[in-house]
Write a structure and sequence with these properties.
The chain has 34 helices and 23 strands. By secondary structure, it is of the alpha/beta class. The chain has a seven-stranded parallel β-sheet with strand order 8-9-7-10-15-6-16, with helices on both faces. A seven-stranded parallel β-sheet has the order 19-20-18-21-22-17-23. β19, α29 and β20 form a beta-alpha-beta unit. The radius of gyration is 30 Å and the shape is globular. About 2% of the residues have low confidence.
């Protein structure tokens, strides 16, 4: 009978070619559904084990000194594994290390049938939150306590393999048949699981699972008495005034109050739509609502791009030819999507792990098909929305609704619209209403099309005219590109690294007038090209599609930018030029028209809802001229300030003066962050297991990581993780938990946007500086110009109020989301500037500052 070895190894690092070695090897051997053997052995690598590996695995230099070297046990392990099907989680690493080590010690022919459970999990469980063993153990409710212990990992992979085999057995034959060619084309033998799933299943006595423990949720199902009273007051005002903005003068409105409002709306049997900050919060709100109303009464509204286009995917299956040379990730995505479509009811990509979203693949292979065919799942959602009592959407969808969807069934608007955070919504609306011209892309695209069409015989008069007009089109883009380069040349750039540059241009500037003229010319040429394409009875279309299948599709998209009047000045707006600078050249040059004040059509669209209830985090009342009030034109809205009742104690923040330099721009960031390093070194024994360092940008997080990683004191006590260095924020969270004690460096914007946190763990918080925006920030420049401010009043009317508001939001989130041991602020400006008292007074409800020696 076939034996299967589920193997896991731990190593000094992932690169065998750079000398990394095995430090532990384990295998679980199964046969006929029974676990017949388990093997586990430490290995002396004969090199130093890095500190972070010891931290991750619990294996240090001392414990491996008495262990055998791989040379001493190579024959033993070769005999254990050579007659087995080889299974591993992340097969490439385990198999490669073993093959190379066997070869070095005289065992040349280790080429087993091999399966990778990472690939199989992606194909068979595409909805899993992640594909590491921790995430998969939670998905299948499997007991898993000692991650990165080779035997524990092998034992869990054995259980995982059983569940994957059971999933194959449950799939319909037609689905398996469609998946087969894509699985078969993978470089290893994952197809074996599909051909003989019963070989990989376990008998009942060998199956394990985690004990069921119900999660304890603080205040579950309860609403604070004051929040409930506030909610009733707010809805009374809303029913009376119809259009209302609510703000808490003391602190940003918390999520509990939003929950209270929703509960009260449901109690009053009102239909409503809730617009939330980000799409990743929709699941949380959906879960909250399902405890109070039936699932049939709730609908999540999303843009069409959130749903798979079934017609386009069927077309992809027709044209894609899987083979061993195919892109491995594409094969996995296609196989996973075939599986997913066999059980999804909504076709919503958010059901999937985002690594497996097929949208980019469909755009690559079936782009033209996407724009011209009906969209089954999206249309189903729209039809359901007319009957739903409760609608959920994110800010992006709502803002796009106001700009792009004129013909919407009036049933959608027969409800109250509740926006959870007006400041975030304003930012999103600005992004939606910006008009963007990808100058580099269109110059390159049209120039290539001219070169390709020149080699084809274009015999008709209209074709000849088309080529001539296309040349004019390219010249206009080239002229625009050269002028943008001229404006960008004076900006500071890093000559050695890729640098993103951005240049602000006022609509009063002569450059703005020039842009309007050139884009008007492009618009006129576009109309001529469009007419010539239609005149030629499909011959020209067919020729263009033959030489560049996607050109006409992108040409139609360009029409939308022109139709939205990129060349026209909308009241308060400004231009941005964005580009990447690499070794003396500008690439990906974009010209963007940004709105400062939104045109009235936006707010008039929202007025179609029966009632409007907008929650402001605090920048409307105090910033009447340069806050949300002005930018969204909310002049006719009723403003309601909540009664001043402080419900929570302020967050204590220590300001360690001796470790702070003056944080003016003239002080190098590098010197400033070295003080962080010194502070951590001197207080290392008293710090909590988690230290969160909050900085002002992703670049600052990377620099913090670079400086801290030079400290041997810090590296031997903490594992280090940083935004822009250690992968996604989700990966940073997982690694920080696995390798604690940990230091994590994040920008405050990423922290808030992604709602990053590790529940039930104690943190020390180190805030590097007050979150001032740069006065050179394009939005700040546009605000200053609009308000006609001088540099001095610009600071008081724009930068300072915005900083105070941002700090309120940050500290409120920290207080609500973290168990904090001690919080520190490395910024003396809360005490040493003429505006310091104003800052402390406006923050006193939320923050209690204390000088720390």
């Amino acid at each position: 009978m076939t034996k299967i070895a589920i193997v896991d190894i731990e190593t000094t690092g992932p690169r065998i070619e750079e000398g990394d070695q095995i430090i532990q090897i384990a295998a679980v051997i199964i046969e006929e559904g029974h676990i017949i053997q388990e093997h586990n052995m430490l290995i002396n690598p004969e090199i130093e084990i890095p500190f972070h590996i010891s931290q991750l695995t619990g294996i240090n230099q001392e414990v491996v000194l008495k262990a055998p070297t791989f040379k001493q046990v190579a024959g033993l392990w070769y005999e254990r594994l050579r007659d087995c099907v080889f299974v591993a989680h992340n097969l490439a690493l385990d198999l490669n290390f073993l093959q190379e080590n066997f070869r070095l010690h005289g065992y040349e022919s280790f080429e087993p049938i091999a399966l990778d459970t990472v690939k199989l999990a992606k194909i068979l469980i595409p909805q899993a939150p992640g594909f590491n063993l921790n995430d998969l153990s939670k998905h299948f409710n499997l007991f898993f306590e000692n991650a990165h212990d080779a035997l524990a990992d092998a034992q869990l992979t054995t259980q995982l393999l059983h569940h994957l085999a059971m999933r194959v057995q449950d799939l319909p034959k037609g689905v398996l048949l469609n998946m087969r060619p894509f699985v078969e084309a993978l470089p290893n033998e994952e197809i074996e699981l599909f051909d003989q799933p019963s070989l990989f299943t376990l008998n009942q006595d060998a199956i394990s699972e985690a004990p069921f423990i119900r999660k304890s949720i603080a205040n579950e199902g309860k609403v604070g008495h004051s929040n409930q009273q506030f909610a009733q007051l707010i809805l009374e005002k809303t029913n009376e005034k119809k259009q209302i903005v609510v703000e808490d003068a003391l602190q940003p409105i918390n999520e509990e109050l939003v929950q209270s409002l929703i509960s009260e709306l449901l109690n009053q049997n009102q239909a409503f739509a809730l617009a939330v900050t980000r799409s990743n919060r929709l699941k949380d709100w959906l879960s909250f609502l399902k405890d109070q109303v039936s699932a049939e009464d709730i609908l999540v509204l999303k843009n069409a791009r959130h749903f798979i286009h079934v017609g386009a995917f069927k077309r992809l299956l027709e044209i894609y030819q899987p083979s061993p040379s195919s892109n491995q990730q594409e094969l996995i995505i296609i196989a996973a999507t075939i599986n997913w479509l066999s059980f999804t009811k909504n076709g919503d990509y958010d059901e999937l792990n985002q690594e497996l979203c097929a949208q980019a693949l469909l755009s690559k292979y079936t782009e033209r098909y996407l724009s011209n065919r009906s969209h089954q799942f999206y249309q189903n959602m729209i039809e359901k929305s007319y009957l739903a009592r409760v609608i959920l959407m994110d800010h992006r969808f709502l803002s796009e609704l106001t700009r792009y969807y004129d013909r919407v069934n009036q049933a959608l608007f027969k409800r109250t619209l509740l926006i959870d955070n007006l400041s975030f919504y304003t930012k999103r609306v600005r992004q939606t209403y910006q008009d963007k011209f990808s100058i580099s892309e269109w110059f390159t695209r049209t120039r290539l099309l001219i070169d390709q069409l020149t080699y084809h015989s274009l015999e008709t008069t209209s074709s000849s005219h088309f080529l001539k007009k296309l040349q004019e089109f390219t010249e206009a883009f080239n002229e625009l590109f050269n002028y943008c380069q001229f404006l960008l040349k004076g900006l500071p750039k890093n000559k050695l690294k890729k640098t993103k540059v951005e240049h602000f241009i006022s609509t009063k500037d002569t450059a703005s007038q020039y842009f309007s003229q050139v884009i008007a010319t492009i618009q006129a040429i576009y109309s001529d090209l469009e007419r010539l394409v239609e005149l030629d009875n499909h011959r020209l279309k067919n020729t263009i599609s033959e030489v560049d299948p996607n050109w006409l599709y992108h040409f139609r998209l360009l029409k939308h930018s022109l139709r939205h009047n990129i060349a026209n000045a909308y009241g308060a707006s400004y231009w941005l030029i964005k580009a990447e600078y690499i070794q003396g050249q500008f690439f990906h040059v974009e010209l963007i028209k940004e709105r400062l004040v939104l045109e009235e059509s936006h707010i008039n669209y929202l007025r179609k809802f029966e009632q409007l209830l907008f929650l402001s985090p605090g920048d409307l009342h105090y910033l009447q001229n340069n806050g949300t009030y002005e930018w969204l034109q909310l002049h006719n809205f009723y403003f309601y300030s909540l009664p001043k009742v402080s419900q929570l104690a302020p967050l204590n923040i220590k300001v360690p003066i001796e470790f702070i330099q003056e944080s003016d721009d003239s002080i190098a960031t590098q010197k400033f962050e070295k003080l962080h390093c010194q502070f951590i070194e001197e207080n290392i024994d008293s710090l909590a297991d988690y230290l969160l360092i909050i900085v002002n940008s992703k670049a600052a997080a990377q620099e913090t990581y670079r400086i801290l990683s030079k400290s041997e004191v810090i590296k031997t006590h903490f594992s280090l993780h940083a935004q822009g260095v250690s992968g996604s924020l989700k990966k940073i969270k997982r690694r920080a938990q696995e390798m604690k004690p940990s230091i994590v460096a994040l920008s405050w914007n990423a922290l808030l946007t992604e709602q990053w946190r590790i529940p039930n763990e104690t943190f020390d918080i180190l805030i590097s500086s007050l979150p001032f925006n740069s006065p050179k920030n394009s939005l700040m420049l546009a605000m200053s110009e609009y308000l006609k401010e001088t540099d001095e009043t610009d600071f008081h009317e724009v930068l300072l109020p915005q900083m105070i508001q941002d700090f309120k939001v940050l500290t409120n989130y920290l207080r609500d989301s973290f168990e904090i041991n001690t919080a520190y602020l490395f910024d003396e400006r809360v005490y040493t500037k003429y505006y310091s008292q104003q800052v402390r007074e406006q923050l006193e409800v939320l923050v209690n500052f204390e000088i720390s020696q």
